[in-house]
Amino acid sequence: xxxELILEIYFILSRLDWISIIDxxxxxxxxxxxxxxxxxxxxxxxxxxILILSILAVISASVLNQLTAFRWLVDKALPALxxxxxxxxxxxxxxxxxxxxxxxxxxVGGGRVSTRLEEVLDAVGQTASQLSSLRHGAxxxxxxxxxxxxxxxxxxxxxxxxxxxxLMTIFYPGTPLHDGAVIIKGDRVAAAATVLPLGGSTTTDxxxxxxxxxxxxxxxxxxxxxxxxxxxxxxxxxxxYNGEIIRGLDQKRLDQLLKAFFRNQLEEAMPTGLRTTQNxxxxxxxxxxxxxxxxxxxxx
Length: 300
Fold this sequence. Notes:
Blueprint: H1 2-14, H2 18-38, H3 43-63, H4 68-88, H5 90-102, H6 117-134, E1 138-142, H7 149-152, E2 156-161, H8 164-170, E3 181-185, E4 188-194, H9 211-221, E5 226-230, E6 237-241, E7 244-249, H10 251-261, H11 263-268, H12 272-283, H13 288-299
Parallel strand pairs: 1-3
Antiparallel strand pairs: 1-5, 2-4, 3-4, 5-6, 6-7
């Protein structure tokens, strides 16, 4: 079996020439460029769903040849889907043409894993507490798996390190960037003064919420983002996720919530030995926080 597979691979490779290799590389380059354009946008999940649906439909139609009506439906639906793709991905296609016109970097990926996520979360918690005491409104969005590039492009690009001083300056009343949302991508402030879609869960009384809180709900309804909101009127700190809102938080509770949401990413950034210890403590029903609290109580 293995020898037959090796012979088949050798037969395929022996038929390749320079023209065929260039042809394959050009096709791969086109697909890589398309995926680069979609990276960091909500279209990635949509494209993934379309591909899965198309593959399942083709496999089902080929395996179940006797289902004439279903095969007819697949044959008619796929061409319509191809026509709909340019309409669905219109923002991404326009972005690609704009990059092409600016002769920018077409083949450079954009994502980067943060190695200082805990510092970023601490900076946001500290900033939210200070803004709350000053009654300065704020809206901070954490990008997660779903890309928010479409919203980043509505604001002012910063690409700056996340620090309390920077966030305090951005949200100081009267500054040009204070009216809008800050989007954090990895360990950087990607943009400020961004515009988000308004939303509101059916379980939430949206009439009692201001525009800032509705925008915080809206972006979490269309993505897996996490937002931190500080009310300008009451100074209350809130967190929104998955179209839900948690209100009336202090800095300690906010830090706990953020670290709970990003627990997997925080553990990935740990050294291997420390991560193993953390998993062992969790199985025992303990954590580093629990041990730290018990030590504090014993000293008291």
